[in-house]
Amino acid sequence: MNTEHKIVLITGGSRGLGRNMALAIAQKGMDLVITYNSNKDAADEVVAQIEALGQKAKAFRLDTSDITQFAPFLHEVSAYLQAGYGKGNFDFLVNNAGTALYAPVTDVTPEQMDAIYNIHYKGVFFLTQQALPYLNDGGGIINISSGLTRITFPGSSVYASLKTAVETLTRYLAKELGPRKIRVNVVAPGAIETDFGGGRTRDNKEINAQIAGFTALGRVGLPDDIGGVVAFLCTKDAYWINGQRLEVSGGQAI
């Protein structure tokens, strides 16, 4: 399985880790479809950067918390692919889109729970389900989890619990999609310096130093530490990796 004309769909590809994943995948010689929620300019900039690398890319707006958008979105993506490639399917789905929730258990509201659940589990589940008819046999799915499913950090109980659910879903998907030779893995980044959660890890010097202090490699992660791993999972070299959780954290809290 070579990467020629392979097409990867990444949710939340306009910024942060998703942007880095998209560029790393393009450097592997694959084409991209990315989604954004609100910042079209940022998405268009990523598309331009991918095109500068010699690959094709297209950005579509998608709110992954709203499952009613999935069917028309996938139809639109398929029409774009049919027009440009002569086939309406893609090869890899990367479920990356997400938002943060920092709140102690005592303060979490039902509305917060519903919002984070819709993005981080329900949206992932049903976008994957509805994307399966458009996903080529022999391709793959990469779900993005978090080091917080292993490392406890006060205030992240809801977010981490839902990421744990995604990790379990990943194993079930790998088993059920095995007959189609679709492999499914989950990448769990440790704390990364991005604008995620308002840039808390990047901009709060105390939190940044605390995390660096319990990381074996002595610093907080950067987007460049993650994108290449996701890109690798989209290549033939990673074909025999399936149903696995890959933590990419530099050895945080080991």
SSE topology sketch:
Elements: E1 7-10, H1 16-27, E2 31-36, H2 40-52, E3 57-61, H3 70-85, E4 90-95, H4 110-131, E5 135-144, H5 157-176, E6 183-189, H6 200-203, H7 205-213, H8 224-233, E7 245-248
Parallel strand pairs: 1-2, 1-4, 2-3, 4-5, 5-6, 6-7
Structure description:
There is one protein chain. β4 (90-95), α4 and β5 form a beta-alpha-beta unit. This protein starts with 6 loop residues before the first strand and ends in a 6-residue tail after the last strand. It has a single domain (7-242), classed as 3-Layer(aba) Sandwich (Rossmann fold). It has helices at 16-27, 40-52, 70-85, 110-131, 157-176, 200-203, 205-213, 224-233, and strands spanning 7-10, 31-36, 57-61, 90-95, 135-144, 183-189, 245-248. It has eight helices and seven strands, in the order βαβαβαβαβαβαααβ. α1 (16-27) runs parallel beside α2, α1 (16-27) crosses α8 (224-233) and α4 runs parallel beside α5. The model has no long low-confidence stretch (mean pLDDT 94). A seven-stranded parallel β-sheet has the order 3-2-1-4-5-6-7, sandwiched between helices. With 254 residues, it is of the alpha/beta class. Helices cover 42% and strands 17% of the residues.
